[in-house]
Design brief:
The protein is of the alpha/beta class. Helix content is 39%, strand content 15%. The chain is built from seven helices and four strands. Helix 2 crosses helix 3 (54-60). The two termini are 15 Å apart.
């Protein structure tokens, strides 16, 4: 309801709703997108702090390109705060699931290394690398979900 209210108030294109977050926010991206896959044209979890579960993978592999967002996941191979194995497992599970339409790509940027290069947050800075990547922004801008605009929670908003 909050996102729909923001879209009504601020405007926007309901066919181009995007979701990204880092660390616990990346964990939230997986969970929120799996619960509402037809809301988002694309999702970009970064250094997600949790691995996949069967219900969450099923939510993102619905068998219909109209309700499966494109995915580009990011993680630092040297991350000491959130295990890179989480994102490895997510990407592997999504790519292997036969219910996920081939047209809905699953990309992965696994940085080796990611900043900072030492200390208690070593490798947890993949967000800076992702958000500084012009190709990432171009990819996001090119994602579209016409079914989200027609039938999703933002129908008629914008």
């Amino acid at each position: 309801a909050m996102i729909a209210a923001a879209a009504r108030h601020l405007g926007g294109d309901p066919a181009r709703v995007l979701l990204t977050g880092q660390s616990y926010g990346g964990r939230g991206v997986w969970a929120y997108a799996a619960a509402r896959p037809s809301t988002f044209a694309a999702v970009a979890p970064i250094c997600a702090s949790s691995g996949p579960t069967a219900p969450l993978v099923a939510g993102l592999c619905c068998g219909d390109a109209a309700c499966c967002p494109h995915v580009w996941a990011f993680h630092g191979a040297n991350d000491v705060r959130a295990e890179v194995a989480n994102t490895d497992a997510w990407v592997e599970a999504l790519r292997a699931d036969p219910r996920r339409p081939p047209s809905q790509e699953v990309r992965y940027a696994r940085y080796d290394p990611a900043p900072p290069l030492d200390g208690p947050w070593e490798g947890h800075g993949a967000d800076g690398l992702a958000y500084d990547d012009d190709d990432f922004w171009a990819w996001l801008a090119a994602r579209e979900c016409p079914a989200c605009a027609a039938d999703g929670p933002f129908a008629g908003v914008g």
